[in-house]
Design goal:
The chain has no helices and eleven strands. The protein has about 120 residues and is mainly beta. It is elongated and about 50 Å long.
């Protein structure tokens, strides 16, 4: 079994910062890409940022220069540092990871349970 557990969400004022964490645990042989997605009420889930096992990053245009994704491979953990937050960043943020449980298993995409981020004064 593999679990992704997110933490770090909450309420913050516009212009503030939050740092999200996503820890993968359980039967893990390797982790390929890890990513953060978000879903606002009434909208589809969208990619925020992703990072490969080698550290190559990709960002949605609307967060470039404000958000930074990183990972600690030794801890099977990904982070999302969010700065200069805006009310339109309000959403549930989900972690995603592509994981092989054993060397002979296929890569499976796992999701965390989501963490609420609310940007409001």
């Amino acid at each position: 079994q593999v679990q992704l557990v997110e933490s770090g969400g909450g309420l913050v004022q516009p212009g503030g910062s939050l740092r999200l964490s996503c820890a993968a645990s359980g039967s893990i042989f390797s982790i390929n890409d890890m990513g953060w997605y978000r879903q606002a009420p009434g909208k589809q889930r969208e990619l925020v940022a992703s990072i490969t096992s080698g550290g190559r990053t990709n960002y949605a245009d609307y967060v470039k220069g404000r958000f930074t994704i990183s990972r600690d491979n030794a801890k099977n953990t990904a982070y999302l540092q969010m700065n200069r937050l805006k009310p339109e960043d309000t959403a549930v943020y989900y972690c995603n990871a592509e994981i092989k449980s054993r060397w002979f298993n296929p890569v499976v995409a796992y999701w965390g349970q989501g963490t609420q981020v609310t940007v409001s004064s």
